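Example for reference:
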Amino acid sequence: MDSELSIKSFDELTGVDLYHILKARSQVFVVEQNCAYQDMDEVDFDCLHLIAHKDEALIGYCRIIPPEFNTLSTNLSVITSSSHAALNTMPAIGRVLVLPQYRSSGLARQIMTDAIRYCRKKYGKKPIIISAQTYLLPFYESLGFIPEGERYLEDGIEHIKMVLRVPQKVKVKKESSGIVANVLTFLLLILGLLFIAGLIYLMT
């Protein structure tokens, strides 16, 4: 859909930005999901806030938690890494929302794709972790996230931890050159045998 996305640190948010972010988060995570919990937390100060606008109105949102402030962690069964320290220093994406009237428009995918791209650009080759509501498992799997561990309740709603692996470069074996060499060797052998057969024929 036609929307404009921007990323701001907490200090870059205007009072109006912050009002609409907190209003949307309260609307979706507290009122709509009938979940009485403390949405505003100290983490917001250290996050990057990705806002989707349409005609200057907030229609979608997520926050990116930098690796140094992220408390979620993964294990070696899900990602490939030689450094155990890297397993607990990865960015996280959370508070992903799209206002009801803009759902089923591809906006959630656009928000997540932009958030992932930004994490890759800013934090390099690190896994990205999320705490996903389980009914959204197929959506996050379609983006490449892999479920990890058992399902758990968070504020009365079932969640599961999911990790997006670091893209691995696939090494393609150069077998074609070996095949060519084998064919040439075989042809040389045939020519050699034909040459010897020709000599024997001439000598008889």
